[in-house]
């Protein structure tokens, strides 16, 4: 009998063809109650993946198209004077949804980008002096184009660190792209998809992921990975305690998706590139594009046992 998570994966993979690993990582991120950053060229399926996740998880969905003229009020909402009541009435912005797609986030100015910070970290926003709680659950999936493309503003390290994972979809395999060309438009399929999980089921799965067992030896492996980034000279800076917690949380969720109630080193290795590559930079690399090679060094040089 298939578990609800297996059913979710199957449904998403029927829409996003040939991306089984990326789909599993994205679902792992949400099960771990984290936010996801997807970096890729336009037209690779980033928006389709986000909308499909919202449908199968039964979440309300809003898409924010980030542009250079986007203002924080366009994200958070604003108060408008109501002449009938003689008072200002708050009109919530698209941030007040359970899953928010921040599309092409690096095309907006840093001021608008920072409007997401409190929401992602605290689950609330402060508008005009009043604190307003966001829905539960609350996820942000942000997409960004490669920084080499024109009209982009690089996300600062403080904002990158708010994302539990960063992944890239990449070009589809030939067979998958042929099926895409021969079949129905994937975006037309999404609105017809039914929710597979209820809010209570999703909350129960997230709680179950937090209870996945981790041995002392496994924690020591995570600590060796983190300490290597802090002590080896090629790293511009080391991973923070937040990053080590994120790595363990993602490994627990990955193990749960595979049907286990305990974490093994292979779980850590599976999620390591997505969890830490955007948090690392090589000392000799001013572009910040070296996270992937540093992760490969960690996987190769740091012993699991």
Sketch the major β-sheet.
Answer: 5 strands, parallel
Strand content: 5-15%
Q: Trace the largest sheet across and list its strands.
A: 2-5-8-1-9
The total count of helices amounts to: 14
CATH superfamily of the largest domain: P-loop containing nucleotide triphosphate hydrolases
Q: Whole-number average pLDDT? A: 87
Gap from first CA to last CA: 35 Å
The assigned structural class equals alpha/beta
Query: What is the highest CATH level, the class of the largest domain?
Result: Alpha Beta
Written overview of the protein:
The protein has 305 residues and is an alpha/beta fold. The chain folds into two domains: 4-201, P-loop containing nucleotide triphosphate hydrolases (Rossmann fold, 3-Layer(aba) Sandwich), CATH 3.40.50; 211-301, Helicase, Ruva Protein, domain 3 (Orthogonal Bundle), CATH 1.10.8.80. The chain is 44% helix and 14% strand. It contains 14 helices and nine strands. A five-stranded parallel sheet has the order 2-5-8-1-9. Strand 3 (77-82) and strand 4 (87-92) form a beta hairpin. Helix 1 runs antiparallel to helix 3 (46-56), helix 10 crosses helix 12 and helix 12 (241-257) crosses helix 13 (265-276). The radius of gyration is 20 Å and the shape is globular. It starts with a helix and ends with a helix. The mean pLDDT is 87.
């Amino acid at each position: 009998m298939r578990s609800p998570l297996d059913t979710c994966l199957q449904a998403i993979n029927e829409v996003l063809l040939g991306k089984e690993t990326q789909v599993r990582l994205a679902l792992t991120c949400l099960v771990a109650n984290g936010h996801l950053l997807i970096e890729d060229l336009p037209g690779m399926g980033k928006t389709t993946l986000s909308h499909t996740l919202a449908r199968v998880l039964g979440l309300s969905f809003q898409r924010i198209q980030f542009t250079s003229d986007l203002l924080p009020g366009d994200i958070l909402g604003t108060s408008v004077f109501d002449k009938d009541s003689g008072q200002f009435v708050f009109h919530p912005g698209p941030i007040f949804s359970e899953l928010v797609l921040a599309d092409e986030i690096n095309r907006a100015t840093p001021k608008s980008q920072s409007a997401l910070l409190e929401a992602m970290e605290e689950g609330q926003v402060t508008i005009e002096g009043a604190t307003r709680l966001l829905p539960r659950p609350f996820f942000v999936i942000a997409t960004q184009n490669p920084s080499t493309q024109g009209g982009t503003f690089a996300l600062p390290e403080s904002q990158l660190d708010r994302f539990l994972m960063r992944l890239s979809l990449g070009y589809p395999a030939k067979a998958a792209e042929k099926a895409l060309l021969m079949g129905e438009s994937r975006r037309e399929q999404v609105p017809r998809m039914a929710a597979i999980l209820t809010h209570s089921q999703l909350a129960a799965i997230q709680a179950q992921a937090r209870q996945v067992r981790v041995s002392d030896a496994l924690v020591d492996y995570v600590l060796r990975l983190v300490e290597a980034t802090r002590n080896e000279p090629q790293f511009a800076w080391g991973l923070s305690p937040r990053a080590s917690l994120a790595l363990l949380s993602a490994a627990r969720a990955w193990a749960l998706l595979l049907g286990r109630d305990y974490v093994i080193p292979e779980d850590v290795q599976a999620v390591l590139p997505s969890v830490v590559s955007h948090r690392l930079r090589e000392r000799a690399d001013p572009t910040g594009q070296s996270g992937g090679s540093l992760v490969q060094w960690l996987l190769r040089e740091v012993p699991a046992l």
